[in-house]
Amino acid sequence: MDDPDLQLLRTFRADEAEPPVGMQERIEERLWQAIMVEESSRASGRSSQRPGWFQRLLRPLVAAGAAATLALGVAIASDGGSGTGRLGQGAVQQAGAGVLDATANSLFGGSTTTPTPIMGRIDLTDGDERLVDGPQHDSSGSALEEGHADLARDLSRDPDELLRAVRSSIASSGVRDPNDAVAFHVAMRWVADPAVPVDLRAAMLRSVEGIDGIDDALVGTDVLGRSGIIIGQLDRASGIRSQYVLDPADGSLFEVRAFMTAYLDPACPPGTVTLHAAYDDAGERVDPNAAQWVAWPQVVEACAPTVLVSS
Amino acid sequence: MVTPPQHDGPPDRGADADEPTDAELIARSIDDPRAFMPLVERHQRVLFGYLARRIGRDLAEDVTSETFTRAFAQRHRFDLARDDARPWLFGIATNLLRNQARSEVRQLRAYTRHGADDRSHDDHAASDARLDAASQTRELAAALEALNPGDREALLMFAWNDMSYEDIAEALGIPVGTVRSRLNRARRIVQQHLETTATEAGSGRS
Hints:
heterodimer; A: 311 residues; alpha+beta; six-stranded antiparallel beta sheet; 9 helices; 34% helix; B: 206 residues; mainly alpha; 68% helix
């Protein structure tokens, strides 16, 4: 620039201020919140037209023939099952990194060939009502459906390969945003399924360590006060933490729950429960109306992330 | 005569010709809000630099962040015929800056006292040239403070951001002719101020 005043002005800005370290990330984080609020708002508008997001997640996955199992080895001592915690209130302790592998060994053993004692079954292809309820264990002890059993037998026991298979199946299932939260739920449903071979459950549990946002394994209580092993994942985009409370004796599912941890939407403040179900020893979902002595959480399904809904 | 700078395209765009334009990203973001995110990486640096000079680093990050948040909320209003979102973003930032008028005056007064860079402790590096530059910077800051806010906005967008008349007009929501007149007036005042200061300094030395 020729003019002295403009030259001087540009000298004034020449030593341009460098943005502070992490500024871009902070801006993006704030923007993510705005994005999630918008997506949540859209979800609320659609909520009356759709079934639970979990149904839609699992159904196409099963149709695509994916299977995965996670095993929970319990290197963590149970507190004896005498806890009286409620959702969000149960005392929880961290078990430390790498515990999933030890937990898998403890729960399901180190063997890769041990036959699985089939205790029940999960019919993921059944109607919406059952899917949204989570695993349904058949008290008659029937085995996996034929197709699923073949798949379970053939699946790799390598955790990395399993996780890739889960992601691949999700991606091909029509889920709009096949993110880590979806992978976590899919993998954990197989981990918690007593009809799946234990070595596959163990391998799938190990695979979960490769998912972003995985918490250290915890010891805690479920809504019925049962002490279990908690495997959790925080989805940073939605601010939702999902947790599976597993029976430390055999890895069967006590409870699945998910709740908001961040203030992203006034309609879904932190603590809002977006998913909840508890199961009895037979694998049947506990009816809140039949257990009125328990403080059941109120589930606000509209706060569940729409990114999990297939298009 | 003020000569508009030559533009080779929006800054911070990168060399990849396949990259979507700002307008394409914003258009996508209407249905897919996450498509908006790359705009932050593209423009945060230049926005922050501009704002930091005007209101100081402490406030600049907040205003930069708020600019992107508001832009996201208002993206339906963006003129998709324009590829470059920078003028639009500067327009939003300028509106936010108007709430920070006192901060800008404080910043300019700080420059007047200390110069743009606090290097007075760096005795070894100090030179006559640097002292002269620091002195000029102080005078420039005083001249900028003397401008009315509208003229100052136009001048600083032109000088610091290399924005064209058209871009400044879009950012400030005023006609191009008004941009031209504001720039001419602002520059005349700044030049007069600097000349007066130089004359007084010369008289002082003699």
